[in-house]
Every structure is written in structure tokens, then in C-alpha cells.
Fold:
Amino acid sequence: DDDNDGVNDDNDVDDFNKNSDSDGDGITDDVETGGDASYNAGVDSNPLDTDTDDDGLADGLEDSNQNGSVDEGETDPSSNDSDDDGLLDNEEDANLNGQMDPGESDPTNPDDDNDGILTVDEDTNGSGDVTDDDTDLDGIPDYMDPDPFVFVSMKAFLQGPFVASAGMMHDSLRVTLNGNGSRYVPLTEPYTNLTLLGGHPFVHLGGGGETIHPNILNVTGPNAIVDWVFLELRSKSDPTYEVFTRAALLQRDGDIVDLDGVSPVVFRAKTDDYYIALRHRNHLGVMTAAPISLTRDKPNAVYIDFSSPSTLTWGTNSQKTVGSVNVLWAGNADANSVLIYQGANADRDFIFFDVFLDEENPNGSFNHIGHGYRNSDTNMDGKFIYQGIGNDVDNMIFFNVLFYPGNVGSVINYIVNQQLP
Structure:
């Protein structure tokens, strides 16, 4: 009865020979039991079990210097999650060799990517599994990726497709099919390669090239996709300075969502305050009046509703009021920063030449109706028309200029300026 507990050695599971290594794991029994010849689960390693915590790592491998303590760089042989990060030691040390090899996380570090956020808190999508979170879609799970990111939920309406009686936008560009059977809304964002009048009106910083699965365009109803939009984060200290841009999707009900068609939009930017601007290829852009705090909290992402008249925006008359909601000014066919009906660089002239030079208009008819995903389609119905019923000049350019609140003289050569610094 070596431990003097009243039970003979051959019947006593707590009775160990301090000088022996009963389980052959390289650690003597007295070291495993802390020198008291008694195994305390959760504190000691078991001298009768080579892998006390059943994590696939032998006690002698975890306690590499075999001193019975968990020293720096060692995992705990009495716990299968040594750093309490929600990942078992054998998940982190996948090849079970006691070392952190390329592609493995550190079973001794509760913040595997050293980004200041504990691994256990990097379950961004709320699934309960940190291994399936890759918020920036770079192939590296968030808990292994120090890249920053923030979320924002947004809502806005474009005047072109807005139907006041329905309180939402139509999705004609999604519904209409090209000759090859694909939808007018492209699967790859249109801004990177958009060239108009010899220039590039949209220049990406950090983002660009976003693509979606064709199934995203099969969704109907309020969540159906209307078009792509261009988003900007701008410096809180200098709103003229763009920090990050990316393309996202606009739904009929005004929600602006990420590439899965439902989620808040993620930016690969650090947690901070930003001015947030929304632009579109043939509408004038809009921006928040002040910087907005963005965080990594996806379920509680900050919400910006540009359609609400109560949302303060940069400048004056930055949007058009239709009934009880605000919409982005339509008619900016050449995607610059001004809306012009008559004069140099008039948007109606851009539409005229688009119609006149359309390859399907060999006779150069002014009444020709062109079809396609074109900037000159200001009402976004899949057709670009210069004159006649449903044309893209009258409602979206002429009347916008004529009745613009700042055009007190109602002159047709007035220039409506985009309210972005």
C-alpha cells in the first residue's frame, strides 16, 4: 500500500511507483501525479495512460521536458484544448508531431493570427465553428488570417428603376436575357472595365473583380437583384481620400448586399470611422454627412438607409425625393460627376450617339430602340432610347435638370453636380 490509502496496490488505481513509468510515455509516475502519488483529473496527467486527454498527442510529447508542468511552448497533457480557443489540440496540431507546421494553428496560442481577437471570438458567421469563417474570401480562415475587415448594412433606391406605386425598384435587367440566354446583369462587377469617353470613371482601391454565382440572379421578389453598385470607404479626416472600394449588389427593396445576395457588405478595412459613399454607373452618387463607425460585428452591422429623408448626407440636394423616400438622381449616362441636359458633355448627347451608332441601327434612325446593359439606359429597363415613348432622356435628364431644387430659374442648361467631395 505505497500511498497509504488503505487499499492494496494491486486493487488501487491511484497507487503508483514514483520511480517507474507505468505507461511508458517518458514521464515518471511521480512527475505525472505531481509527486503525491494520486492522480487528480484535470490537473495531473495519468501515469497509467500515455494520452491522458485523448487528443492524439502523447503526454510525453505535450510535456516535452517531462517536468510535470505546462511550460512556454508546451501543450497541456491534461487538457485537449490547451489554449481554450475552441479548437482541440489535435485539430490545431493536425499531424500530431508536437510542432506548429505550415498550415497549422498554434494549440498554445488563444489568438492564432495575433490580430488582437481571440480565436474563439472569430466565429464571424455565427455557425459555432470558427473553421468555416473566411470573411474576406482569400482562402484563409479568419482565425488564421490577420487581415482586417468590417461590415456595413445599407439601403438605397435608384431613381431609374424605382416604381413609386410599388415602393421598390423593378428588376428588368435581371429578368431580360441576352441573345446567348444570359441575363443582362453581369456575373462580374461592371465597374473595373467600364470605359466611357476615353476615361475610367470608376477606379477600385483594394476591391474590384467581384463575381457572383448565376443562381444569385434566379432570386425573385423583393430580394431580386437590380444591379451592381460601387461602394467607397473614405478617410474620416479627409472625405476626398478613398481608403477602400468594392462592388456589391442592390436588391429591389433597396438592400445592398454582399456576393451571396443576402449578407451585410464586408470591407477589407480595419475597424474605424469612415465616410461611406454609394455610386452607380448612371446615377449621381451620395455619401454620409459624417464618418460612421464600422466594426467586425456582422450580426449588428451598422445600418445606413440612404432612402430615408432622415439620413444626413453630404452636400445639398444630394438625392431626389419621390413621395416619402429619397432616390439617387438618374440620368448620368456618361458616368461623370454632373447631370447635363443641354451644353457641353450633355448626357442626352451621350444617349443620342449610343443610339445613332448602335450596330443594330444601320440606318442611323433617331427612333431606334437599342437593347443591352448600357449606361445610356437611364431607366434601366434593358432598352436605350433617345426619343419616343419610354425614352431615357425626358424623365431622367430633362425633368431632373428642370425641376432640380437648386435650379431656381428652371433653365434647361443648368448643371446638376454630384454631391461628393
